[in-house]
């Protein structure tokens, strides 16, 4: 996995201009052992409920990145140490949460990349509300299932096709 988000932006100004590639705003903090990760996107839209997050991470990840539109809630965590370990063990490349995580020390021990707005100690509800593989909006950027996400120390890029 050799890429730099800066190079992707420099090499594809046409995609940025046309809106086929976008950079998420610099709101996300890094967790997990992998600072750099990429993969095809699987999407979830949930709000303070992580039952669908667990169900999704229980399936083989095949190197994909799970992008969760959590409504930017800072009131509950959507991913914790157990789910990060599940993602690692099931072959997910990374997780991006438009919301919070918890058990950050446990997540940091996992061989996976995780980005989130911050941490919150309260767990989410488990009702199963939400939608999977739908168009979502994260940080004002539209993300669709099958897009490609690239994350490194400089930021997060989402493109409508594989770039690297």
Automatic annotation (TrEMBL):
Its cofactor is a divalent metal cation. Keywords: Lyase, Metal-binding. The keyword Metal-binding applies. It is an enzyme of class 4 (lyase). It comes from the Bacteria. It catalyses: 4-hydroxy-4-methyl-2-oxoglutarate = 2 pyruvate; oxaloacetate + H(+) = pyruvate + CO2. It holds the Pfam family RraA-like. Signal peptide: none annotated. Catalyzes the aldol cleavage of 4-hydroxy-4-methyl-2-oxoglutarate (HMG) into 2 molecules of pyruvate. Also contains a secondary oxaloacetate (OAA) decarboxylase activity due to the common pyruvate enolate transition state formed following C-C bond cleavage in the retro-aldol and decarboxylation reactions. PANTHER family: 4-HYDROXY-4-METHYL-2-OXOGLUTARATE ALDOLASE 3-RELATED (PTHR33254). Homotrimer. Belongs to the class II aldolase/RraA-like family. This is 4-hydroxy-4-methyl-2-oxoglutarate aldolase.
């Amino acid at each position: 996995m050799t890429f730099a988000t800066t190079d992707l932006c420099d090499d594809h100004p046409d995609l940025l201009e046309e809106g086929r590639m976008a950079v998420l705003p610099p709101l996300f903090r890094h967790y997990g052992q992998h600072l750099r990760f990429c993969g095809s996107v699987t999407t979830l839209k949930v709000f303070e409920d992580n039952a669908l997050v667990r169900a999704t991470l229980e399936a083989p990840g095949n190197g994909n990145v799970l992008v969760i539109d959590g409504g930017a809630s800072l009131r509950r965590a959507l991913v914790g140490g157990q789910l990060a370990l599940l993602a690692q063990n099931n072959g997910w490349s990374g997780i991006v949460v438009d919301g919070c995580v918890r058990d950050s020390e446990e997540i940091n021990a996992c061989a996976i990349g995780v980005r989130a707005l911050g941490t919150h100690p309260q767990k989410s509800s488990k009702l199963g509300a939400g939608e999977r593989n739908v168009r979502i909006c994260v940080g004002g950027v539209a993300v669709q299932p099958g897009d490609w996400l690239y994350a490194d120390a400089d930021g997060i890029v989402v493109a409508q096709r594989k770039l690297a």
